[in-house]
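Reopening closed ticket. The problem is back. First fold of the pair:
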Amino acid sequence: MSDSSHPPLRPKHLGQPSELPASPEAAILDYVANPRVGDLYLVRFAAPEFTSLCPVTGQPDFAHLVIDYAPGETIVESKSLKLFLGAFRNHAGFHEDCTVGIGRRLFDEMRPKWLRIGGYWYPRGGIPIDVFWQSGAPPEGLWLPDQGVAPYRGRG
């Protein structure tokens, strides 16, 4: 890659034993070269059992996250993404901060053509909070399937 500020393409986690990071900030996301760099396509990660902590009560919060992106020169390595998301289980943050923070970090580090994240949070206090962020308008011609998470009705 021509930009030396981009993270190195030597995965730390792939094929190696890895422990859950102590925090999202301590997590290292790995990126590998996009094998279809000239093609416009969508990659989706669904994390239906995402967990973080309420910053006020310390109680667990649960969400179904859906991350969609159109790769640029790199793709995120899935094991490192799983460890990054798992590091939120002891992280105290509001739904908005967690959802947007995950999207921003992936976008800023991976530099995809486009990225969106949907955070479908389960209710606390009787109100589900859904949080959505995207990096901008999707590229023309990119197929954008529905994220497939129903509005809250016991979301099962």
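Second fold of the pair, where the issue appears:
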Amino acid sequence: MNATDNRTSAGVRPATPADVPVIRDMIRELAEYEASAHEVRVTEEQLHDVLFGDHPSAYAHLATAGGEPVGFALWFLNYSTWRGTRGVYLEDLYVRPGVRGGGHGKALMTELARLCVARGYERLEWSVLNWNQPSIDFYESLGARRQDEWSVYRLTDEALATAGASR
């Protein structure tokens, strides 16, 4: 695409099974941007199962330009005990560099917000790396606010196995 193509109207649609390879490619691109490509383990088969298997536990939407996927949002449902409602946790939002600034990220976020409102979900949440100022600026331009009073914790790999073996 040339520089003017990134200003085309952003389209968003739910992902289909045929989109799994391009979603997998964009997951790798996102990980490369975050200097974490070595951590990507997901296979197309795993992605297909979680999105389209017998018991889907995650969902994806694609941003398109000229009919071609240029970004994605991968999300799943969470639950707020305080509010008593479901919400959406946005696991990944990614727009390919050549089309950033064309409204694709906003279109994906708008679609997720619309989905929350339509379904009575009261939260749309996500995490962003502290150094990723362009993304922080983008999210804040939408009205999102940082939740400074919370810290993210994670158990993986050996620490998870050890904790799971404890009694």
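Update: turned out to be a display glitch only; the data is intact. DSSP finds five helices and five strands in the chain. Residues 5-165 form a domain with the Aminopeptidase fold (CATH 3.40.630.30). Please close again.
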